[in-house]
Amino acid sequence: xxNLDKQYQALLQDVLDNGVVKQDRTGTGTLSVFGRQIRxxxxxxxxxxxxxxxxxxxxxxxxxxxxxGRTDLRYLLENQVGIWIGDAYKRYQNxxxxxxxxxxxxxxxxxxxxxxxxxxxxxxxxxxxxxxWRNWETTTxxxxxxxEIYNMSDDSVVVEKNTxxxxxxxxxxxxxxxxxxxxxxxxxNVAELDNMTLPPCHYSWQVYTRELSTRERLKLWxxxxxxxxxxxxxxxxxxxxxxxxxxxxxxxxxxxxxxxxIRVYRxxxxxxxxxxxxxxxxxxx
Length: 285
Description:
25% strand, globular, six-stranded mixed sheet, Thymidylate Synthase, Chain A, 8 strands, two-stranded antiparallel sheet
């Protein structure tokens, strides 16, 4: 059994043995523990779990969607990836609280795919990962200079709106300042959380470099919460699949996954036991 599978199964057992019963937004209820870490050395192979089936196409398509700065559901649907449909449809339903005849999810999906006006209004997931990674909006307020005020009749205050491309900044800094302690990407924009279809779970990731015979990279990423039965495996995979590769001479040696709230839903104990009893296929490279 490879080391990643061992750590994953130990994590599931930890949740079952030590988990605290908690309520959640779905009304299902969970067992959860707080503050756990999984470490994986890339020399042991690509970090893809073999004790469960991982939706590899979803990993690739969603990551490319993030890196393009996109937040539109249509792109995912056109590529046969439906992992955001449930949350998007719930957000759509919230517009019709109190109504009896709300269109079903199949109708909603069809409209997002084929109705441009509908997709623009209800098929955008808000300022989630892609927008935060590539187009974090900023507002700067400054006072005009004396010359500007003297020669212009409008207000003396200027409001400037810009965007920050965190991925481009990270690539630049990896190339020009690899020892920086600011090699970090965040998706947790407090001012925008209520405008997101779902606040980010893997809200931050950080890069650390050290000089060896070739430049290696250690990456730390932080998740506020993880569904240990379903989401584990997806996130480890795409955070390693996207590794630079961006900056020449930079290679990853270790992946560190730090989680706050790790949970399993009480409604799916059979799936958890299935994971614990599954036989791994060996290391994936």
